[in-house]
Amino acid sequence: MSFKELVNLRESTRAYMDKKVEREKLELCIEAARMAPSACNSQPWKFILVDEEKSVEDVAKMVYDPMIRMNKFALEVPAFIVVVLEKPNITSKIGGIIKGKDYSITDIGIATEHICLSAAEQGLGTCIIGWFKEKEIKEYLKIPRGKEVPLVITIGYPKNEEVRKKVRKDLKDIMSYNHY
Known about the structure:
Strand order of the largest sheet: 1-2-4-3
Number of domains: 1
Distance between the termini: 34 Å
Shape: globular
CATH architecture: 3-Layer(aba) Sandwich
Number of strands: 4
């Protein structure tokens, strides 16, 4: 498929089939993330694949927030990819301090989208989640103190194979040439 077709195919999936995701497919997604660019080649990431039934059930309860009914669909997800923010290399860190920007969080975003595009190419659906019980997930997955978990990705076979129509702003509303 063309890149444009792939981008149009990729969407946030919130309903999954009850079907285990093959580890080979999960690893292809991580390989795509591994190849993502990062500031000063810092590669400030680690990915935890959660695919064993008990672990998936436990992590799902840490992603779903019953108080505000956020992410209820996570209770039926077949697998998760937990994104761990690692320390950037010294060059990226110093550059970030000088420029007042956290390049590592941008790097995480790029790598995460590489995962989602790879998943879409393989017929899998994903949803990037930022609302979850980080402290509980870190403890459960034995993530060392001082590390952050900025995102959790749901991944599995979508229940609905029909791609939703994307509602986006017009191109002219989000771009300009040579000045704002």
